[in-house]
Design brief:
The protein has 291 residues and is an alpha/beta fold. It has a single domain, classed as Alpha-Beta Barrel (TIM Barrel). The chain is built from twelve helices and eight strands. Strand 6, helix 9 and strand 7 form a beta-alpha-beta unit. The termini are far apart. The structure holds 3-methyl-2-oxobutanoic acid. 3-methyl-2-oxobutanoic acid (KIV) binds next to strand 6.
Length: 291
Amino acid sequence: MRDKVTIPYLMDKRARGQPITMLTCYDYPMALLQEKAGVDIILVGDSVGMTVYGYPSTLPVTMDMMVVHAQAVRRGAPGAFLIGDMPFLSYQVSVEEAIRHAGRFMQEAACDAVKLEGGRTMAPVVRAITGAGIPVMGHLGLTPQSLAMLGGFRAQGRDAAAAARVVEDGAILEGAGAFAILLEAVPPEVGREVTSRAAIPIISIGAGPGCDGQLLIVHDMLGFFEAFTPRFVKKYADLNSAILEAFQAYLDDVASGRFPAPEHCYPMKKGEWERLRQLIAAGPPTTPEEV
Ligand code: KIV
């Protein structure tokens, strides 16, 4: 088993200029594989709402759903740095609720940190949660929980004023105590600028190569999510096709009688088939004693 990934380890990687690797994960079998591959950070993202539950956005996802998924991922990936993504309305209502919900990830799912979306307006929440001893990753740029405000899943910080706001928000979140920031769907110039000003790891999901690390959503990178593919996704596999082919082959095999074959059947113990024939030939038992 590998050594546990910690914040000092991530800081050290950053200091040595070694890119930090991060993937989302929602379940045990995928967590086992990510642990085996040696992913540094695993995010149990509220993207689970779209990739696994089929909702059109992340908004319907609840704390209870997130905790169950985080528990499953932790069982499969004991060594990864595990981040629980705080779902919509779990941290916006009050700092007290935010601390309590962040605490659930730590207490019930053995997470190492939580992530929440938003810039300067979220600074008091970041300060309060970190003040309770819970590390917080900020999330700037495209923040999917604000989909209605942003007018859709679209890149952010593309003009100078918007980019300046992202850069300022980065500094504000760091000042509020965030141990790292996730930067989503902004031009690479903005990613580089935020990163060069920060003393904490800046992780990119569509923020270019100038950040300290990279994140992809696991269903996107495995070709396992069909609804849409953001520009920043690189597909490393085509699971949709592989799984569909397997389902079709199974249907064909059952229809044609090729499945199940003898190797998929349980053999009777030696001589028991003949004994069964005799029992059947002798007819049903006639008295309770014979039963
Ligand atoms: O929920 C998630 O997976 C995320 C990514 C979109 C960054 O927050």
